[in-house]
Model the fold of this input.
Amino acid sequence: MTSQSTVEKIPVRFAGLSLAHFINGEWLTENNAAEFPLVDPNTGEEVGRAPIASAKVVDDAVAAATKASAAWRLTTPRERSEYLHRLADLVDEAGDDLARLESANVGRPISDVQEDIPYIVDVLRFYAGAARSTNGTSAGQYERGTTSIVLRQPIGVVGLITPWNYPLVEALFKLAPALAAGNTVVLKPSELTPYSTVALAELAASVLPPGVLNVVLGDGSTGAAIVEHTGVGLISLTGDGSTGKKIAASSAATLKRVHLELGGKAPVLVFDDADIDRAAEHLAVGGFVTTGQNCTAASRLIVHDAVFEKFVEKYTNHVRQLQVGESSDPRTQMGPLVSQRQMERVLGFLERAASTPAKIELGGSRLDRPGFFVEPTVITGVDQGSELVQREVFGPVVTIQRASSEEQMLQWANQVEYGLAAGIWTRDLDRAVELMTELNFGTVWVNDHLTTLPEMPFGGFGESGYGKALSAESLNDFSQLKHVLVRSAR
Ligand code: NAD
Done:
């Protein structure tokens, strides 16, 4: 492997890690490649540079994936299951180092990223099992003298494009079902956060046959080259809505399938009969997880009039106690934003809010220290039509709206373009059942927030995209059905 750039304080397990493309089981660097600067969000200092793959490198990656597909698509479910279990073992063993690498690159608290590791190992193991128990529609004899068979087959080469907030989780959400279904992969992490994905490729190198997983590094131009490539049959993106729309439009030219996990603006309805103490504590974590850069973050609280003051007081008390600090400190609960650009975006929302009736209950400013730190911010008095309610801030900013009735709470909850996740806090089961049907979101939590399960589908409605991650549904998304009709020759 050539040495191009390495992250500061690199964990021992990945001491030799350099940022190169991983194609056909080998590390590749391109001469005179364009580069992207990598910045430590804790300090604002440049810590390395990542290459931006040209269309030629993408072409090589797709060629390698196409070649590998010939054998990989014919592996049995049991064989693919064994590969995934072996990869899960390696991720598990290297988990601590993977977590430190990702935490340093993204700025997420180390304790949070450490919690991701058993989860992604479990996702790999879930698909190792699911690969062996796929359900097709029933085969049968629907016309005299004929027998119909339904074959579930891989798509071929799939392009997986991930964002910067959860590089490993997002990679595994896509990679595990894609491989389990018999596809080969070209994976591109965000230009801001390539390290843990390259480390994942290094682990996979000792398990998977060459060309089954290829990783190309680069920005939107590299992503666009994957999307436009005629050798790629499906694109799965997690990213911004504007990127999703561009990808859906350009995929039309090659009639590619598209799987989009886009933004969110999760409403949480807190009723007067809820356990207010538990809700306040839980939602303070759920609102500021990954510094609010989480597409399901509890960013939009809608609280019933009768408990509004009580809730706001308890909630802000919990938020005030959040430990903000360096991502490598095990005590840190909230780290910096990922980049200068993201920080400026968040501060822009706060500056514009100053000329509205919105009231900042807590925070509201950049922290006086190096790096991209913004205070945990709680805002009340916002209008339903305001940008703080309607748009994804993707930062440590939570709004709390005061509603006078259940009808108003439901109406405000649904009155956004996003449809990824929502929450209900109540002890009234009838109310919860009614609302879970009426809320127009792909995930609804009752007296909980953030929990996703490998067995259950995850994905949005409306501007939050389409297609499901996790569960057997995702295996369906990454495969295609074929009807074979056999007519008796007798
Ligand atoms: P982004 O859309 O800017 O980038 C996502 C990925 O797409 C990156 O790898 C980027 O290089 C690539 N890309 C950019 N332009 C492209 C193009 N034209 N063609 C192909 N690829 C292109 O998003 P981001 O800023 O990295 O991530 C934040 C966004 O992701 C937020 O909006 C957030 O809500 C969303 N997100 C959604 C989920 C979910 O599950 N729904 C999860 C995490 C993040």
